[in-house]
Amino acid sequence: MNFTYATGKPEDCSVESIVFFVPEFKTLSKQLKELDRATNGSVSTLFEAEEFTGEQGQISQLMNADEYKAKRIILVGLGSQKSIDHDSYRKASGRLSRHWGLMNSQSASIYFDSVDDLTIPQAVVEGLILGAFKQLEFKTGDGAKDKNKLTSLQMCVGDRRSLKRLEKGTERGAIIAEGQVLVRTLAGTPANYLTPPMLAKEAQKLARTYGLKCKILDEKVIEKEKMGALLSVSQGSVEPPRFIILEHQGGKATQKPIVLVGKGVTFDTGGISLKNALNMHEMKGDMGGAAVVLGTMVTAARLGISQNIVGLIPSAENMPSGHATRPGDIVTSRNGKTIEVINTDAEGRLLLADGLDYANSFDPQAVFDIATLTGATLYILGYSGAPIMGNNEKLLSRLREAADNTAERVWPLPIWDDHRKQMKSPIADLTNSGGRPAGTISAGAFLENFVGDWPWAHIDIAYVDVEPSGKPYVPKGVTGFGMRLLVEALTNWKRL
Ligand code: BES
Ligand code: MN
Ligand code: ZN
Fold first, then answer.
1. CATH number for the domain including 85?
2. Which of 374, 383, 481 gets mutated to test ligand 1 (max ligand atoms within 8 A of its CB)?
């Protein structure tokens, strides 16, 4: 999507469609009265018939208003004035992005009276781009064509002094949404098109395009690094593992970095502890954490976030074979701890163990890890939010603040000694499976063993990585959840 900017009266916008966001109303506002007059009473007719009252999700179209250059006027409901927040705009424009009248227009303008807060146009643009997301690259013929004709959009504001804010908000929204589209695209790509080496190639390509530093550790180097936990996952597959390192230098060279670690399991069969066939195909998305880290690094570079940020992605394919790790095998992680692999399907924490330990080499000021780690999240927050855990209250509350601003909800869980006990093995230092009780927390308790002397937060995005039915700006399928959250936390970052 290409954006242009204008100031002036809505009547003068020479575009095919002009869009207004309208809060729920009981009587016609000044603006609606003007529109009503210009459309020979269409607004009051729609209002009286309760077809358009400004309710969240409503969209109505007015045609051929005399004094308007635009052929159609599109009204989008924001919902009750009391509860309007950024997400009201995101949702409204998400719906708008699939509205046929707009998609079918050759030119369109979104109109604001004024812009006091640049996060409003930002949310509008995020909703528009995210709501229109479709993965078409594997379709052929007509199915591969995007029916959306609109490739350029004018952002228009009445108040001239708001223009800078409108521009800034729009640009920010577009960069963030494009980052999240990248996350969705990667997470939605099937495992035969995205193996660990292919993921590493993609990271290199993105790094070149957006000016990130990128280093790839191949199997030999991973062996030299003694990442035995990561290798125990990849050894069953013909696909070799990769360890991807991305760096964004937005701060002074002396500033300690914030490190992000993302689980990059390009396909999770469960290994010898094989998963049930029913939903196994969904495990192509088991590199969702890695995709979020990649998207966040690209977005940090494009926004010029003023922090030093390192992205680490341990990547492997979890397959059953004659070479695969057996249940009961004991493996040694990079930090020297021994792990009894009770269940080869608890592979994500093995990758993260070596990833978190590797973070030590960057002397980080804080570390986030993000992973589709445990199915048990379904019974905690469902599809509605991601459980978080960690060792630093301040860091966790930063994530909760970022969640409020981005509508990517998170909620903290404790890690208690009982959960730590669950992860002890009778014959090794640790076991990789704590059984059914508190499955999400016990995974966190396992990870804690690989955390250094730094603030750490763990985000479990299993089940929020995929939207089951479709929401206004989150079409059914991969969501990219976590990228807006991390970008927001990093944008507002202050020393802990
Ligand atoms: N990738 C899965 C977790 C998952 C499940 C993500 C469903 C999204 C949807 C992970 O590797 C896994 O299999 N975890 C096991 C751990 C158990 C064996 C201790 C789980 O959650 O069942
Ligand atoms: Mn698994
Ligand atoms: Zn997994």
1. 3.40.220.10
2. 374
